[in-house]
Amino acid sequence: MINNKTILITGGTGSFGSVFIEHLLKNYNPKKIIIFSRDEQKHFLMEKKLSKYRKKLRFFIGDVRDLNRLEFATKNVDMLIHAAAMKHVLIAEYNPFEVVKTNVMGAQNVIDACLKNNVKKVIALSTDKASSPVNIYGASKLTSDKLFIAANNYSGKNKNIFSVVRYGNVLGSKGSILPLFLKGAKKGLITITDKKMTRFNITLEESVLLVIK
């Protein structure tokens, strides 16, 4: 499924993308990996870190808000992993439409580009916060999830497969609660949002294996 395939990862320079790409390079033989992200500094650092794999990597500066750029990036792509998103809950609450533009409109752009260029397999990363959402981040990801699932109705004879992987807090990722817990533990104080809250946690490595499965 992965060997000799061209794979594109949106938000590819983020926490998940960095670990996912290294895992693919070390355990599989992809034809090409396209890293799609708007952060040029992260592109630069990743290219240096993965320099021995340079022949298999392509670094695309781009934003999922830009449909034309996505359409260009998805040409001849076999599989796409959609990891690009605005994820910080409090920042999202203060900038709600910016979240909509990335998490909802950006999701539809990914779908449209994949349908146009016949990307056979598309996997969108989701979050436990999309289950009974109470904030704009969760609501935007729930909307995104529904867009990706509905896209299966549009694939027609091409039989493109759109799916969603939903999991909990990724320990150690950017924005993870873990550093706050560890800092508080030194003082014997753990910060919680609500005593009734249940947190679902997963490691970066577990999230990578789940997406591959």
Structural class: alpha/beta
Largest sheet: spatial strand order: 3-2-1-4-5-6
Note the beta-strand portion. Answer: 15-25%
**Which stretches are low in confidence, meaning pLDDT under 50 for 5 or more residues running?**
none
Biggest sheet architecture = 6 strands, parallel
Q: How far apart, in Å, are the first and last alpha carbons?
A: 10 Å
- What Rg is obtained from the alpha carbons, in whole angstroms? 17 Å
What string gives the helices and strands in order?
Answer: EHEHEHEHHEHEEHEH
Strand tally, please? 8
Mean pLDDT: 93
Categorize the overall geometry.
globular
- Oligomeric form of this entry? single chain
How many alpha or pi helices? 8
Helix content: 40-55%
Write structural notes for this entry.
The chain is an alpha/beta fold and 213 residues long. It is built from eight helices and eight strands; from the N terminus they run βαβαβαβααβαββαβα. It has helices spanning 15-27, 40-49, 67-73, 89-94, 96-116, 136-150, 178-185, 204-212, and strands at residues 6-10, 32-37, 57-61, 79-82, 121-127, 161-167, 169-171, 201-203. The strands form two sheets. A six-stranded parallel β-sheet has the order 3-2-1-4-5-6, sandwiched between helices. A two-stranded parallel sheet has the order 7-8. Helix 5 (96-116) packs parallel to helix 6 (136-150). The longest helix has 21 residues, at 96-116. It is globular, with a radius of gyration of 17 Å. The protein starts with 5 loop residues before the first strand and ends with a helix.
